[in-house]
Amino acid sequence: MVMDRIHRHDVLNALMLALALLMLGFGVVKGISTLSATLDEGVVDSVKVESAETGGLAVASGDQRTAEVDPELLHPPGEVSILVGNGSGKRGAAGSGSSALSSLGYHTLPPDNAKTAELTTVYWVDGFEADGLQVGALVGVTPSQVQPLPAGAATALEMELTDAEVIVILGADSGF
């Protein structure tokens, strides 16, 4: 009799756990679907890291980070090489940022350290302005923090830029 109650209690707990995991999985899939649809439209209000544990990105709205991006000017994410540099002073920030962008389908180069920066800045090379704006929205910066890559940037940023089309320098304001 006691064993029956313990067994029923364990079964009930297992069922509740399974239901909770199913609901959590549904929420994650719905969030990814929403982000994907938003990216397909070419307009992202803002995206920032919600959890350091999951490294997940979630759409945040209602701020002044809207970037109007012409979808016809965007390259497919897999055709955009992104280099993330850590200028934030936070250990592992560039790796977290690279992983988050990679999970969205971008080709990320090995992360690197960069010159210390207060503000996160996104740079783009010729022909990748729309992609730079899109990535800027994904990492949560305002359009004014997305700029063309200036001449001599490798020296100024204290990093090797390799073949990147978009360069993200995470500053102290970064959520990564």
Described by strand count, sense and barrel closure, the largest sheet is:
6 strands, mixed
* Structural class computed from helices and strand pairing: alpha/beta
How many domains would you count in the coordinates? Answer: 1
* Tertiary shape: globular
Q: How many helical elements? A: 4
- Taking pLDDT < 50 over at least 5 consecutive residues as the criterion, the unreliable ranges are 26-64
- Report the portion of residues in β strands: 15-25%
The total of beta strands comes to 10
**Assembly annotation:** single chain
Radius of gyration: 20 Å
What is the CA–CA distance across the termini?
54 Å
In helices, the fraction of residues equals 25-40%
Q: What's the helix-strand series?
A: HEEEEEHEEEHEHE
Let me know the average pLDDT.
74
How does this structure look, described?
The chain is α/β, with parallel strands linked by helices. The protein has one domain (43-170). Helices cover 38% and strands 18% of the residues. The chain has 4 helices and 10 strands. The protein has helices at residues 2-41, 93-102, 129-139, 153-157; strands spanning 43-44, 47-49, 57-59, 67-68, 81-86, 107-108, 112-113, 121-124, 146-148, 166-170. The strands form 3 sheets. Strands 5, 6, 7, 8, 9 and 10 form a 6-stranded mixed beta sheet that branches. A two-stranded antiparallel ribbon has the order 1-4. A hairpin with a 7-residue loop joins strand 2 and strand 3 (57-59). The protein starts with a helix and ends in a 6-residue tail after the last strand. The model is unreliable at 26-64 (pLDDT under 50).
